[in-house]
Design a protein that fits this description.
about 50% helix, about 15% strand, EC 6.3.4.19, 2 domains, tRNA_Ile_lys_synt, 6-stranded mixed sheet, tRNA_Ile_lys_synt_subst-bd, binds adenosine-5'-triphosphate, ligase
């Protein structure tokens, strides 16, 4: 008997490998996994692989389809996707309607609403499998680089980041499309994916093809490889920063001289974490550089104002955060 089509086999293997990694870490103990499916080729190919792989591992598979209600006909797309998942033999399928609101662009707001809905709807303790591919990873890395959003962002998405799991990060989009075709599955083609008003679409259709041409191929793989290397570096630095925090922390404050003697990469991480614990969010590189100057170029300067009305100052050789009292 002929085996499965190579693309179908590749998707199943990628999923099996991720589950092999997730199992010993205790992420499959509930015996259930969820698949977040938009109906597009990536998540549909993943859904098909999930029913196959789960049967062999005695896991139940639950489909989650989010209806963002941003386009006319979105409910029909969601319903059609749900029908496809039921036909694949999913143990349960849910369509979740969300309201896309809040700050930032519509893409960011939709993502926030989607992740919150998926987290709320997954079976308790279950991983949620997402269909991000190597192409998505390459786009994320390039976007992070271009926007200067820091090493964590250039390090891209993690394959296993509970409750999220991205088994297809090593596969090209053409593999998922081929897998769907081989299985006779008809993916939904999102008109947004061709709309040049979206940054990602222009990256995908204009910037990356040009880079591929100029650098003679291999760019997506190179970007994904860079992300994986950077993730290892960032993880190592984060661990060192955790240790350093313990050494320089004096109650709620930080020893400015001890922290000032550490390399910049660690100083910034310690400061971010320390301020994060104190409820400071929205820190920019500019804030961190000014706080850094309280250590490296200390000449009695005043405090550094932070988002949320807090101030970091140096007093008696220690960095402390407080909320200035308003006079009058
Ligand atoms: N409406 C949705 N409902 C459920 N899951 C979604 C939805 N949109 C995206 N996802 C999940 O997030 C992953 C990445 O989403 P993104 O928007 O980057 O991709 P996409 O273009 O929708 O990909 P796909 O080809 O899988 O549909 C998808 O593969 C899927 O697992």
């Amino acid at each position: 008997m002929a085996g499965p089509h190579p693309a179908v086999a590749a998707v199943r293997t990628a999923l099996s490998r991720l589950l092999d990694e997730a199992e010993p870490a205790g992420h499959l103990t509930t015996g259930a996994v969820a698949v977040a499916c938009s109906g597009g080729a990536d998540s549909l190919a993943l859904a098909a692989a999930a029913t196959h792989v789960a049967r062999h591992r005695r896991l139940t598979v639950h489909g989650l389809v989010v209806d963002h209600r941003l386009q006319p006909g979105s409910a029909e797309v969601a319903a059609r996707t749900a029908t496809q998942l039921r036909a694949l033999g999913f143990d349960s399928v849910r369509v979740i309607e969300v309201e896309v609101t809040g700050p930032g662009g519509i893409e960011a707001a939709a993502r926030r609403a989607r992740y919150a809905a998926l987290d709320g709807a997954r079976p308790p303790g279950a991983l949620v499998l997402l269909g991000h591919t190597l192409d998505d990873q390459a786009e994320t890395v390039l976007l992070g680089l271009g926007r200067g959003s820091g090493p964590r962002s250039v390090a891209g998405m993690r394959p296993l980041d509970p409750p999220w799991a991205r088994p297809l990060l090593g596969l090209r989009r053409e593999t998922t499309t081929a897998a769907c075709a081989a299985l006779g599955l008809r993916p939904w083609v999102d008109p947004h994916n061709a709309d040049p008003r979206f940054t990602r679409v222009r990256l995908r259709t204009e910037v990356l093809p040009l880079l591929e041409e100029v650098l003679r191929g291999g760019v997506a793989e190179a970007l994904a490889r860079t992300a994986a290397q950077l993730r290892e570096d960032c993880d190592a630095l984060d661990r060192l920063a955790t240790d350093l925090t313990e050494r320089v922390r004096v109650d709620e404050e930080l020893d400015a001289a001890a922290l000032g003697a550490a390399p910049a990469a660690l100083r910034r991480r310690v400061l971010r974490r320390w301020l994060g614990f104190r409820g400071v969010s929205g820190l920019t590189d500019h804030h961190l550089r000014r706080i850094d100057a309280l250590m490296g170029s200390w000449r009695g300067q005043g405090g550094v104002a932070l988002p949320g009305g807090l101030v970091v100052r140096r007093t008696h050789g220690r960095l402390q955060v407080d909320r200035p009292q308003h006079r009058g």
